[in-house]
Specification:
Blueprint: E1 5-6, E2 11-24, E3 27-38, E4 42-46, H1 53-61, E5 68-73, E6 76-77, H2 85-94, E7 95-98, H3 112-123, H4 129-139, H5 144-147, H6 156-169, E8 174-178, H7 186-203, E9 206-211, H8 214-220, E10 223-228, E11 231-237, H9 238-243, H10 248-255, H11 264-273
Parallel strand pairs: 4-9, 4-10, 7-8, 8-9
Antiparallel strand pairs: 1-2, 2-3, 2-5, 5-6, 10-11
Length: about 270
C-alpha cells in the first residue's frame, strides 16, 4: 500500500484506491486497481472502451460498489453506507464527478444561477448564496448573462463550465472528470482544459481524469495509469510514459493516434496480436 504522502513533493494523498475489484457476469471489469492522488495533483486513467477506467471512476465516486478493496479520501475510508442526511451529504461533498454530457445532468427548466443556488442551499444552508454564486460563475468564466440562461440556451462549452461550477460549489477534495471534454470541439476543449488547470492552481483540488484521449492526458495530468481488461498495465509520470512506453498496449494506444502515414490496418493487426 502507498504511504500517505507523495515522496516527490511531500504532499498528503487526497485520494487512495487500494486493491479495487469489480466483477460483472464473471468478467473482471476492475481487477486489483491501486493508485494514489496527491493533494493538488492530476492523475489520468486511460484505456479503450471496456478497459475498466469508467467503472473505476464510478467506484471512487460511489456510484458503483467494489467487490473488494477500499477508497480513502484524506486518509479516511469512504463509507459504503452512511446513515443520516448530514453524513450522506458530507460523503457526497468529498468527491464530485463531471460527465461527458452535462446536459443530461442539468435540469433544462432551471436557469444556471438557480441551479447553483439549489446546490448551495442543500449543502451550505447558512451561507450567503448570492456572493458564492457570483464567485463560482467568475471562477469558471461565465458572466451574468449566462446566469439567467437555461441549459438549452448555452453552448456545449458553457454547459460544461456550469457542470464544473456546480461540482466546485460543494468544495470537493477530488474532481473526477469522465471524458469531460470528449464531446467538445478542439478549440473549446482547450478552453476547458486551461480553465481546469487554473482552478487546480487556485484551489489545490485533486483531479482524476478518465479519458481515451492521450492528448488530453498529455496536457493536464502529472501521472498516468494505463488500463486494459480491468487491470493497470503501466503507470508513471505522464511525460515519461508517453515518451517511452514500456508496455506493448501503451505503445499501441500511442500508435493509434492518427498522423501522417498512419495505417489503421496495421494498428488493427497489432491489436489482435496482443
Amino acid at each position: 500500500m502507498p504511504d500517505r504522502t507523495d515522496p516527490a513533493a511531500d504532499r498528503p494523498y487526497v485520494l487512495e484506491a487500494r486493491g479495487l475489484r469489480r466483477t460483472f457476469d464473471a468478467v473482471h471489469a476492475v481487477d486489483d486497481v491501486t493508485f494514489a492522488l496527491p493533494e493538488g495533483g492530476s492523475l489520468g486513467i486511460v484505456g479503450e472502451s471496456g478497459s475498466g477506467k469508467t467503472t473505476t471512476a464510478r467506484i471512487v465516486v460511489g456510484l458503483e460498489r467494489a467487490d473488494a478493496g477500499e477508497v480513502l479520501v484524506r486518509g479516511r475510508p469512504r463509507a459504503v453506507r452512511t446513515r443520516g442526511r448530514a453524513a450522506r451529504l458530507a460523503r457526497a461533498r468529498e468527491v464530485q464527478m463531471v460527465f461527458q454530457d452535462p446536459y443530461l445532468s442539468l435540469d433544462p427548466r432551471t436557469a444556471v444561477e438557480e441551479t447553483l443556488r439549489e446546490t448551495l442551499a442543500l449543502h451550505f444552508p447558512g451561507r450567503d448564496r448570492t456572493a458564492r454564486v457570483r464567485e463560482l460563475l467568475d471562477q469558471v468564466g461565465l458572466g451574468t448573462r449566462a446566469a439567467t440562461a437555461r441549459p438549452g440556451e448555452l453552448s456545449g462549452g458553457q454547459r460544461q463550465r456550469v457542470a464544473v461550477a456546480r461540482a466546485l460549489a460543494v468544495e470537493p477534495a477530488v474532481l473526477v472528470l469522465d471524458e469531460a471534454v470528449a464531446a467538445l470541439d478542439v478549440s473549446v476543449q482547450a478552453q476547458i482544459l486551461n480553465l481546469l488547470a487554473d482552478i487546480r492552481e487556485q484551489t489545490g483540488i485533486g483531479y482524476l481524469f478518465i479519458t481515451h484521449d492521450l492528448g488530453v492526458v498529455r496536457c493536464v495530468t502529472d501521472e498516468i495509469l494505463v488500463m486494459r481488461h480491468g487491470s493497470i498495465v503501466e503507470r508513471g509520470a505522464t511525460d515519461q510514459v508517453l515518451a517511452a512506453p514500456r508496455h506493448p498496449y501503451t505503445r499501441l494506444l500511442l500508435d493509434s493516434v492518427p498522423r501522417p502515414g498512419w495505417d489503421p490496418y496495421a494498428i488493427a493487426e497489432a491489436r489482435r496480436a496482443l
